[in-house]
Each structure stands twice: as C-alpha cells, then as structure tokens.
Amino acid sequence: MQCEATKRDGIRCRANALSGAKRCSFHADPNKAASLGKKGGLSRKFLPFTHLTELDPPETAEQVRKLLGHVLVETRSNQLAAKIGNACAVIAGVLLKAVEQSDIETRLRRLEDQLSPPKGRR
Ligand SMILES: [Zn+2]
Description:
The protein is mainly α. The protein folds into two domains: 1-45, no CATH class; 49-115, no CATH class. The protein contains four helices and no strands. Zinc ion is lined by residues 3, 5, 13, 15, 23-24, 26-27.
C-alpha cells in the first residue's frame, strides 16, 4: 500500500507504507530523517585539524614523501577525511612532477653556464 502522507511540495509520498500502517517509515516517525542525517554526520566527523602533524609546504621529493607518509597514517587512523587524504595524494603527485621539472631546469642551467659562461665572466 502507498503511503498516505503528502510531501512538503504537495505531492503524495510514493513510498510503500509499513505493513499494517498507512504511512511509510519516514512519515510514520517524523524525527527519523533528522536522526538518520545526524547519525550520518557523526560517522563523517573527524578530529579538528589541530591534531595533524605540522609540516612546512614540501619543496623537495623527500619532503613530499614525508608528507604522504603522514597523510597515509592520518587517513588510516581516521584523523583526516579520506576525501582530503585523496586530494593531498593527487596534489602531491602534481607537486612531485613540478619538483622533478624544477630540478632538471636547475641542472640544465648549470650545464649551459659551464658551456657558455655569461659575457664578462671570462
Ligand atoms: Zn511517506
């Protein structure tokens, strides 16, 4: 049997009524939706960011490695939301490429300087 309740938008609820009742589980207990929402919110609650290890922005591959180690441990122990841990991993991947590129540029500049020193330095 269809739930007899009418939703806030004026349309009749299309859920099935509980057996032996005229309303669905949500309309039979008006507090059910709120309590389920609260329960879901609690399961997604994380410790404040003050519990995370303080780290400077990583500039070297070694520092990125260190940061990822912390992210892994903190995500695994539920101190950091998986969503944020995942974002850190993605950003760290991009950062590693930038660090790598920057190192190559520095080494190339050094080689170019050795091959043809700037005028006035001979
Ligand atoms: Zn209903």
